[in-house]
Amino acid sequence: MKTKIVLASSSPRRKELLQSMGIEFEVIAPTSDESLLDGERPEDYALRLSSEKAVSVSKNLNGNVLVIGADTIVVVDNEILGKPKDEEDAGVMLSKISGKTHHVLTAFSITKPEDEILHTHVVGTEVIVKTLEPQEIQGYIKTTEPMDKAGAYGIQGVGAFMIKGIRGSYTNVVGLPLVEVIEALKKLGALDLFSDDGSRK
Question: What's the predicted TM-score (pTM) here?
């Protein structure tokens, strides 16, 4: 029986990344409390949220289903930057990453019904940002692109203007580390991208 894959995310970027691989899946928006716990490390925070998102969806399902939950955060100077609350908050975040190298952490968890967590992993990428002029920050905020993104920028959009370079996975910065996600799905027997003759399945 074929395994059904569900993406527990309302992120259009994650949906587009999975679609680019030709993977068949369904999208169900998750629920989770994104509050940071006292003393929680960035990696632990992202992993916890990815698990909670996946479980919030898988607990309502049954059958041969795998649910992927993910959470992306930006860490600069040991501070976690999530999605900005408003334009002022976006400006503060962009000022904090200006001229610096920060880390993007994306955690993903794969669960099945009965809340069983089968796989969890966190991937880190270093992102180098140019020094931003005040008018660049304000102009970028006016595009509205920063408002639903961790760290207040999108590397795959207009925000590319500020990215001097990255060390690590590009898709991780967009919102889902495809290499690691696909490898996990393959190990769980839920995915085989190519047939024996090399053609796409």
Answer: 0.90
